[in-house]
Structure of CCA tRNA nucleotidyltransferase:
Amino acid sequence: DPQMAEQGISLLRRLIEQGYEGYFVGGCVRDELMERPVNDMDIATNATPEQVMTIFEHTIPTGIAHGTITVIMNGEQFEVTTYRTESDYTDHRHPEQVQFVSDLYEDLRRRDFTMNAIARGIDGSYVDPFHGREDLEQGIIRCVGDPEERFEEDALRMLRGIRFSSVFNFTIEPATWQALVHRRSLIRYIAAERIRVEMEKMIAGPYPFKGIQLLQESELVSDMKISVPCPPEQPELLNRLADIPAVPVSLRWTLITMALGLDSEQMKPYMKEWTFSNAFMDQVSRLLRMHERLLAAADHNANREVYISAVIDYGRETAGQWQQLYPVLTDNVQQQLASFAAHGQQWLDEMNIFGMGDVQINGQDLLAALQAKGGPWLGKLMNEILLATAAGQLDNTREAILEYAHQQYEKRDN
Ligand code: ATP
Ligand code: MG
């Protein structure tokens, strides 16, 4: 983003004019070197948080205790963090205490991997004391300093290492890998939510299976604070994750629950424990239920009505996702669902009614027209009307619907 880069450079220039140091650091320097899109630009400086807040007009004290101030320049946001070291690692987690230091080198030294410990100055020069650029070029993940110590300080780094290896298709350097395997049980100190965040990035990347294999190989997966059914019931599905889109994210996670052998009910306690939101769990659940519905009808009733009623129950987005999921299912399941897969998209495209909101009549209208009192029959009738109009068997006009309603209502009386 050239606009963001430009503002970042004026931010650095301002710091330097005021007599301080300022560098781009961390993920943005790494991503730029890799020619990957840069989402946010982090800046390190020897100015204290208070000084940063005096220098810039628009600031937010985001993480002032950790030295981080958000600076807004022409609408672009930057996290400006005072050079610091971290100490007092209690429980192998992110430290409570940070100490500000005067030296960029000290700040780079606390960072996890060599590729994340590169600073770039305003003139484009690099400060790269741990040869991160070399490791980047060779595709190597290597801890800064002694890997055993670094994982002991903060066990999340093990998972970050696997995540980076997976997303970038990089190799974990042998000493770093050995330390990771050796220290793996420390991962139990890391909260489920932070594990989930790393897993989400890994699964959304281009080589999710590589990450899953590393989690299994290192046995990190069995020490994590979240439970995963092991071994997976259908491991071959995990190898297909990269063959379906990364967005919407629920798509790949649905394939994971299928691989683990969890149905739409069984997956709920797991999703909860993995700290996914209810909204996300709901998306996965709808896709699983749509799949289960189609599968249940597959051998005797794989017709348009069944498909349309599933679309109405689980939503058109879910139906679209099911079409994307189908190609990576096992051959056997694909065969059973071939008819739905072949026609589903067309049936979906032809639909223009997806819920009662799209129907030209509501419950009040029906009661008035039939001069009847409400009851369970009303919901049933409305559902019939919805299905019939959605399937094109009934015109979506008040007239046609009322005529149909009268017929059905009378039938019910007799
Ligand atoms: P992403 O692409 O996920 O944002 P990132 O490397 O930018 O990757 P962030 O969590 O944004 O990750 O962290 C920014 C920087 O802070 C990292 O590049 C690294 O230098 C440092 N860092 C982050 N987490 C840790 C950690 N657990 N231990 C040491 N350094 C860390
Ligand atoms: Mg980042």
In short: The CA atoms of residues 366 and 402 lie 7 Å apart. The radius of gyration is 28 Å.
